């Protein structure tokens, strides 16, 4: 796909990179950067799963970022201090990016498990820390590339402590694997620079290690694998017209005419009319841990053909649970062959996801997955809308005020989410013992449609499902 017309600010950023290589933002020495370790696994059907020692890094803007001569002066406050930052060149020279103590931002990593907390008690009150982390490769210098076309990703999650208004998210973003490291941004991925997503937020003070002095937005394809609390869940691809990380300006950053699809084409079981599928004590019982499997199927089951379907499975108590195929949405009900419980191009057409289709649709998402994306973990809530787009109104069982962060911190400040056993690889290879040992069974949420039955019968013949 062609690049969009890039932001007006981009020539300035490029000019700095070319003309002023000695004026980079500085890496501080006051606080060391020690990346938490998180073991992950890469799997094949023939060889099983191989463990690797990956690491975690928090976003550049979630760490001390201060004036070189005064740690009390922040470099992230907008509008920028005109003395500190009269121009981009001087600003980069005057600012220092420090390491961070990860416990102070609500992060605990041990073995293959990562726990995130929204609030920490400082001795007087609970303060919001809302952590966001990126997966680093074993070298600790660059982000780990996940290339998931014709692959699957699985993880275990415990979100029993997350109620209305919270979002324990695990997602993919087509960030530059080096964190857009350059002569003007020597920190790069090891200090969490280079973030981008399909929302193209233009109120971010620094982009790719440079000050954002002209309201640019940082854009890229985004695959929301998991946005959820214990009451509702959604998975949603968001496409963009550009490749990799790029900038937008003005109308390019807008919702309806912009270079990225902000709404996406997603599946929320409650929103599609299955309120009894996901929640405490329901088919997927969120009061207890479970496994989430997301599969990216291609047209001919190879990594060189277009993405045609994004499918979700759950595993709990030795039972494989396909995503609900029930719906009350008339357009989805009328799909040829019925609703398969998965994201397809026809499904997105039925949901009127016009921007998703306009900006590349499933094919575009698949191309991004093939190039490689960065795995991101976050925990957050929202003052603006109380997360009602996820769990309120027609999207979930939460009322209009349950998701108010003021109410959350008052009634349940210990909110947390734990992700563990993160694996990716060939389809069918990452789920517990290949979905076939230890007596795993297939749970028939409803009579299995012909598409899923054909796969279930095939897998059963391989001894991987017991039906």
UniProtKB/TrEMBL annotation:
Its EC number is 3.2.1.-. It catalyses: Endohydrolysis of (1->4)-beta-D-glucosidic linkages in cellulose, lichenin and cereal beta-D-glucans. Residues 1-24 form the signal peptide. GO terms for molecular function: cellulase activity. It comes from the Eukaryota. SUPFAM superfamilies: Concanavalin A-like lectins/glucanases. InterPro entries: ConA-like_dom_sf (IPR013320), Glyco_hydro_7 (IPR001722), Glyco_hydro_7_sf (IPR037019). Keywords: Carbohydrate metabolism, Cellulose degradation, Glycoprotein, Glycosidase, Hydrolase, Polysaccharide degradation, Signal. GO terms for biological process: cellulose catabolic process. It is an enzyme of class 3 (hydrolase). Belongs to the glycosyl hydrolase 7 (cellulase C) family. This is Glucanase. It comes from Bombardia bombarda.
